[in-house]
Design goal:
It is built from 11 helices and 17 strands. It is α/β, with parallel strands linked by helices. It folds into 2 domains: about 210 residues, Quinone Oxidoreductase, Chain A, domain 1 (Alpha-Beta Complex); about 120 residues, 3-Layer(aba) Sandwich (Rossmann fold), CATH 3.40.50. The protein binds zinc ion (2 copies). This is 2-desacetyl-2-hydroxyethyl bacteriochlorophyllide A dehydrogenase.
Length: about 350
Amino acid sequence: MVRASVDLDRRTLVRALVFHGPWRIAVEDRPDPVPGPGEVLLRVVSTGICGSDIHGFTGENGRRFPGQVMGHETVGRVVATGPEVTGLEPGTLATVHPVLACGSCDACQAGLDYRCPRRRIIGVDPALSSAFAELMAVPAANVVELPETMPAEHGALIEPLAVGHHAAARGGCGPTDRVLVVGGGPIGQACALAARRQGAERVVVSEPHAGRRALLADIGVPSVDPNDDGFTDVVAEVLGGAPTLALDAVGSSSSLRSALSVCAPGERVVLVGMHEPKVSISAYAVSIEERTLTGSYCYTKQDFLDTAAWVATAPPELARLIEDRVSLARAPEAFAALARGENPASKVLVFPGDS
Ligand SMILES: [Zn+2]
Ligand SMILES: [Zn+2]
């Protein structure tokens, strides 16, 4: 019903970034997404390029498929709503919780929809309208309204920041903790900011790249180069003791070994990074020294809503997290530069409405 007036003044094709196989991605016209019952049509303001998108682009993770449009870290404005949707005015700023779950299994009933065996994720599932496009149609239940008092583009940071929020929560982060985050990329930054929000005042990030350490300094988070002599002692010095919680935002054998060896015996390590599908660690660092190793993946809907509520308060440090902005036309070269390691930017946002 709402559609009729919209169709008259809008073209029937939209520009989207289409993945065609390893290292091949192009801007193409795709059919205009139509909001079905319970869905909302959003005009995308900006979408972040995630590390998982880059690994999909290079073919490394096998979780992206030729012909699909990626993009799950996004913010947009409501254009129209499909049947059965009320209360979302055109123009409303909103982000999208990208996890679509069945709502009825044990995991969903427990509020752990990201563990739903039937979950589908926007930007990962090729059948779902996704965010590297001018327009996307998404379930209204996944749309989270944002206020005009925050910078609109910061809405694209909510998804990666929620990953850090969940990881810190999985580690039981609290005010008495001394927290080491291993890796200062977007997820490491999210972990450090989340640990602070969860009450930890003593947080340090281990990061070898000088540009990323400069970013961390700008957002008020101390960092240490893991290649420095006496790394373990330096971390303990900065934190006032050995870490009681380590969040591994890299996920390689060396990062996890580092997290386990620097963290105090009996304490907790959370594995959230996914750099390598298999890791090799010291079994005794877990058994004899009784460290707890906890996995962390994605976020609950509540983690996402809590993170959106925080971003809605326009924390000033978030502006520093965005290091590059590109149009859809420039997105293919941005993907290639990030994959080749030539773009030092931590987070790159794509603006599909820009030419
Ligand atoms: Zn992501
Ligand atoms: Zn379910």
